[in-house]
Fold this sequence. Notes:
By secondary structure, the chain is α+β, with helices and mostly antiparallel strands. Helix content is 44%, strand content 11%.
Amino acid sequence: MGSSRCEKRFVVALLVLLLFAFVNSRGSAFTHKKKVQMREKVRKMFYHAYDNYMAHAFPHDELKPLTKTFTDSLSELGNLNLEYLPQNYNGSALSLIESLSSLIVLGNFTEFERGVIWLSENLTFDVDARVNLFECNIRVLGGLISAHILASENKSLFTNSLYDERLLHLAQDLGQRFLPAFETPTGLPYALINLKHGVIENETTETSTSGCGSLILEMGALSRLTGDSRFERAALRALRKLWSMRSSLNLLGTTLNVLTGEWIEYSSGIGAGVDSFYEYLMKAYILFGRDEYWDMFHSAYLAVQKYFRHGPWYHEADMRSGKATYWQLTSLQAFWPGLQTLVGDISAANLSHREFFYVWKKYGVLPERYLLEHATLHPTEKYYPLRPEFAESTYYLYQATKDPWYLEVGESIISSLNNHTKVDGGFASVRDVSTMKHEDHQHSFFLSETCKYLYLLYDDSFLAGRNFVFTTEGHPLPVRSLWHERLPMTYNPSNWTSSFKDDTKATRVSALESQVCPEMIYGSKVESACHVPDLRVNHRCTSDAECGIDSTNCRKRTCSAASYCGLWPFVH
Ligand code: DMJ
């Protein structure tokens, strides 16, 4: 009996040792060499996409990788009737504009310079093309502004000529062409604008929350760079109007009428039609330091956590009642853990990120829509158009925690993309994730976002010593004290969560934690975001005392038998 107990102890000790060895080997699985290999894989992916675009589609907007032809998608986004386009229209080199900041992140200044010179000499917005204001803002205006800043910072590297600020002039010209869209009684902009003629007669008056509520980063940056305040004023007026339309629950709908300021679709979530609205409130606060943005974001964030969140998932709800409407996961929602990481709500981010990864693994890539109640694909929205959101969140979570598990997730994303979407002529969208049948389209955000976030996951030297905010299209904008009304003390690399490189030094602080965590009194009710991170960034623990407080329901997390903090159910 005594010896068998001893044997058991020995076996247990051995198992513990093996587990330790396994955990350590997982931790060290990503050696520097492996990171370099992964980075090089992503580099190859980017150039496979970029070179094919340049060979078969440039200067048109996007590549059709199966037929090695092109699509002028920017105008098509807003202009279903192609007869609006002039006959000799050659597109707006959209994928080149989108690639510029990625080329700098990859360290290819020569190709960046070539692109800047070509655009400076050839790009014009004086075309009779009807474009989607939001898409044109995040892709073209954002791409040009970011590239202008990067070109100005690296002026001395230009070999063939001096950088003459031409990208900024182009951005200013484009911004001016946007302004007529804002001339509505509400200040909410039309969704579509003709670049040459302004708002056309009988233009649709319907737009989305993200369409009119996420213009402030690019328009604000344009005003700061040019000294012309009209752009920022227009975007801010629209944002304030939109915020004033929130319900008493601090929720917004998805679509609205720009002339009357009335909601059309009352159901909303954190995905399509709304996503970047939340993102831009938080990022505008970081970029411009205005408390107004933080106040809006804070209220909106609490409302999302309260009415949309169900465990790690986010469903949709009616803005008036807060009652759940659609129980669906959408691919666009996958940006949310990244945004939560910026806020410092790491454990909530980690939980959701794991669920997105579960669905990613189930299908090989993320389907556009997934029915949570039935754990199945949506009957029609089964596609995966090379979206970046899941890679983006993986990048943010790795930056904040340095947990090598996220590097493994990145590896899995990279192999899925290479296995399922790489074709001879570039990277093709997936039409149906259950068959992996392709669609002839390489979206420009694959170049500006998907590849960029994956590259930064393994090599973030571009960011060394600098603070950048990435726009919703992945274009970096520097956080400048000159643009700031008040530099947030917490947005400082030394006390930001990204500095937690060493597990033993981790402390329970998070970016902007002081503003997320305090209790707020609404009437007599105490409401709180109450997030306290777990002691260790990898959520490992030896006792309950090392676990934090869950941000959604404010319940204390406990340490499981497997030494992991979580909201574990009681086992009787
Ligand atoms: C991108 O254009 C942007 O990330 C946008 O905010 C959402 N959709 C695509 C990528 O999926």
